[in-house]
From TrEMBL:
The chain crosses the membrane at residues 75-95. Pfam families: TM2. It is a multi-pass membrane protein. It is found in: Membrane. It comes from Flavobacterium chungnamense. Keywords: Glycoprotein, Membrane, Signal, Transmembrane, Transmembrane helix. Residues 45-93 form the TM2 domain. InterPro entries: TM2, TM2D1-3-like. This is TM2 domain-containing protein. The keyword Cytoplasm does not apply. It comes from the Bacteria.
Amino acid sequence: MESSKVDMFMMSNSKFFEAHHLMAVREKLLTLDDSKWGMVQTLQFKDPTTSIIVSLLGGQLGIDRFMIGDTGMGIGKLLTCGGLGIWAIIDWFLIMGATREKNMEIFQNSLY
């Protein structure tokens, strides 16, 4: 694929991935066939900033985990009221990284 297309993708979507994943994403896009470019552009990534806001407002109900696709953890947080609040507070620090990891999974799964 053209490096200019890849660079534009990286500039507009870098906030959705962890810093250590960016080079792997770039390398994968450079080796990608041009026929898959349309599919890559239509991928919908979860915004880590939105995840932290939802976690602050509804973290005890597990809404943040449901939002990023962690259904099991969302149910656990819902049934325990966020681990009596402790789990909800811990997630304030972890949810952005978890969202970026889920985005990387979406990216990897879409290419196979």
